[in-house]
Amino acid sequence: MEKSQTIGAGNDRPASELEKDIESKPTTTRAEYIDDPDDGLSEEERAKIDRKLLWRLDLMLIPWLCLLYLASFLDRTNIGNAKLDGLEKDLHMSGQQYNLTLTIFFISYSVFEPLTNVLLKKLRPSVFLPIIMFLWGICMITMGLVHNFSGLMAARWFLGLTEAGLFPGIGYYLSCWYKRSEFGVRMAIFFSAAALAGSFGGLLAAAIGEMDGIGGKPGWAWIFIIEGLATIVIGALSFWMVHDFPDEAKFLSDADKKRVLRRLAADKQSSAEHEEFKMAYFWASVKDWKTYTGAMIYMGADMPLYAFSLFTPTIIEELVRYSSIKAQLLSVPPYAAAAIVTISIGLIADRTRQRGLCNICISIVGIVGFAMLLGAETAGTRYAGVFLGAMGIYPCISNTIAWASNNTEGVYKRGVTIGMIIGWGNLNGVVSSNIYRNQDSPRFYPGHGVVMGYLVVFLFGGSILQEILLRIENRKRRRGDRDHWIEGLAPHEIELLGDKRPDFIYTL
């Protein structure tokens, strides 16, 4: 039995007494110790209070988290915009050296990601997230001050290290606030900031690039410096704008804290409870087959995402033979379309509870898009392929994370699982940074071909595989084939099994 500081918000008794009560009453579940502040109200009154609470959570959590991820994605991909403004020429870099600066980011980024959710839980979101933002803002500024390839490599390594905690951290953090049927669209809205970053990044780079020569710095250096300073400012404000987990969030009253915890408990989640970290949670994630199918699906979306984000300005420049500024601007519409589709798929997946089917269908759009980039002869058709590629990649990122989160229960197990899935996906960014080579322009056959292979085999194929396996497991649980897992266990012990409970039905 886990020893927690408090069980549910607003309880005055210490955790040890509550644990003894639960153990002395084996028919009592942990959720029954969370007081009901709406006891005696009608279902209609409860529903009205719940809608107001959900709206309040959305306003207090989602907008600022979207801003954080917009800054994060902008800072990791703006090197593609800087390349168009003369980065390679000024630093006397070859095309291969440029690709190495992209590769080194993904190595440090992916290696440290699985560890970050443990730090997030221990340090609290309101401390951990602002600290890493401040640090990666400094890394961004140094990227604008380097004078050679070695300096840029060092800056990109530390940028990957300091950014590693944001995306898996916020994915895990949001899953501790919302029911499974509500999480997908919030994750989609949050991740749409990545698409907006691609859109906004082109506009911003085009404007900052006009600062060329100011202070003796080229335009590409100002892209890094200005955006790094903005990140530091956002990080400083985040000490007040980022909130802690539901049982500690200062913007909630005691009654609202209980409501959040009760609605999570009703959804068979214990995500907001205090747990002391144990290696058992890590090994539970490692031994779970869903961790590996989730990683397979995520790599099928994540590698194409980074390839697309890092090289879209270059692809469009070669495609239409425009100036770098016009290429930056032409990269905006595909990202805007991707943001709209991402949110739409989030809504559809939440309402239908068919995340796998959504992944399968939308991945086909991306496959068609890259087939057009590979085979089409006209610039207009290939530009349309860029649109379909964006629309087929971006929605699958947030939907895959929501799918993995929905099917993993337990505070630390979920955090470790999400970190492992995202970390493995981002490690494949090493591939994305080396498949678009200068000598392959303007058609970039090797790059487009590898991306399409990832989409077909890992995203499309992996989604089908996980869908089939989850259906088989759900049938076994409904038939009672897994009931022997809980023989002789008390209700509170069954709760601790998380997604291994026989009554836990997986989201398809």
From TrEMBL:
It comes from the Eukaryota. The keyword Zinc does not apply. It is a multi-pass membrane protein. The keyword Nucleus does not apply. Residues 1-40 are annotated as: Disordered. Keywords: Membrane, Transmembrane, Transmembrane helix, Transport. Pfam families: MFS_1. SUPFAM superfamilies: MFS general substrate transporter. InterPro entries: MFS, MFS_dom, MFS_trans_sf. CDD domains: MFS_FEN2_like. The chain crosses the membrane at residues 53-74, 100-120, 127-149, 155-175, 187-208, 220-242, 295-316, 328-349, 356-376, 382-404, 416-436, 448-470. Its main location: membrane. Residues 14-24 have a biased composition (Basic and acidic residues). PROSITE patterns: MFS. It is found in: Membrane. Residues 61-508 form the Major facilitator superfamily (MFS) profile domain. Signal peptide: none annotated. This is Major facilitator superfamily (MFS) profile domain-containing protein.
